Amino acid sequence: MVExxxxxxxxxxxxxxxxxxxxxxxxxxxxxxxxxIGEIDGVKGxxxxxxxxxxxxxxxxxxxxxxxxxxxxxxxxxxxHWRLGRGIEARPPVYQWNGKKTNAGCIxxxxxxxxxxxxxxxxxxxxxxxxxxxxLADTLTTGFGVINNDAHVKIGEAVVIIGxxxxxxxxxxxxxxxxxxxxxxxxxxxxxxxxxxxxxxxHGINSTQADFPDAVRQIxxxxxxxxxxxxxxxxxxxxxAFALAGNSGRCVGFGVMPYDRKLSINxxxxxxxxxxxxxxxxxxxxxDDIPRYLRMMRAGVFDPKGFTSHRIxxxxxxxxxxxxxxxxxxxxxxxx
Length: 336
Description:
Blueprint: E1 22-32, H1 34-41, E2 57-65, E3 77-81, E4 94-97, E5 100-103, E6 113-117, E7 121-124, H2 130-136, H3 139-150, E8 159-162, H4 166-177, E9 183-187, H5 190-197, E10 203-206, H6 212-219, E11 227-230, H7 235-244, E12 250-253, H8 268-271, E13 275-278, H9 286-298, E14 310-312, H10 317-326, E15 332-335
Parallel strand pairs: 8-9, 8-11, 9-10, 11-12, 12-13, 14-15
Antiparallel strand pairs: 1-2, 1-6, 1-15, 2-3, 3-7, 4-5
Helix pairs in contact: 3-4
C-alpha cells in the first residue's frame, strides 16, 4: 500500500537478512480480510507507516529461521496469524523497494516470501490444507473466540449475528458448535445468508427488506435474544443491536467503527446488567486453539472448506478487494 484509498501496487521487494526471532516463510495461500479493506480506506485514521506490505492470515512453509527461533523449523507447514502465539516477538522487518524503505509489521502475507515474527506462527501437520490454514489464522479462531470468550454463549441461547462476511461466517459456525438456538443471521446479501445456512444459521434476515430488530422479535415470539453480535462497525446498526439485546443480554462488536464516528446510547441498561463489549480477535490463543480445531476437523465435526467463494492469483488482488467491497465475495483466497 503506497497511498490510502488507492489500488495496491504489485512489485518486487528486496528481502533483508533474518535477525533475532524472525522466520522466512513461503506464503502459499492468504485471505483478503476486512481489516485490509479498513487499512486501505483509513478506517482507523491516517496511516503513518506508508509504504507498507499488507495481509495477516495465511498458510505457508518455513524456509529459514533466524537466531533463537525454537518453535518452528525449516520445512514446517504453518498457520500465519496476527494474534500472538508462542515464541519471540521479533522486530518487524524493513524491505527495500526501488531504493525506498518499505515497512512491514510482525506479519504480512500479501507477499510470496515474508519475514514473520516467530510468535505469529503455529506449526500444523504437513497435510493440512493451505486454505484451511488461512481460515484458522483468523476466520475460525476469531469467530469461535467471539462466541466462547467474548459472548460466553450457553446452550440454547438465542444469538443474532449482524454481518455474515468472512468473520461473521466463523461466528455462525461457532454459535452452532456452542449449542446456540436459534442462530439468526442478518445481512444485506441473500447469497451470504444462504452460505450461513449451510453452517448453522437457522433464520436469515435480509436487512434491505425488513427492519431486523422487528424481524428478530417475530422469530422469538416477542422475546429478546440473549446475545447480539455486530460485525458491521456501523454506529447506527450497533445502537440497534444494543437495544435489541435483552435486559441482561450481551452485545458484542467485532466490526471496527470508523475513527471519526461515535456511538450514542443510554447507559442505564449497563447498570442493570446488560453488557456492551468489543472483541479483539475473539481473545483467541492460536497456539492452543488451532490444534483443537484441527482435531475436530479431522474427526469430521465440521469442514470449513466451503467458506471460500473466490480464488485468485496475487496479480488480481485489487479485483478481490473490489469484490469484497461490493459484497460479492465471502472469502477470497489468494493462491501463490
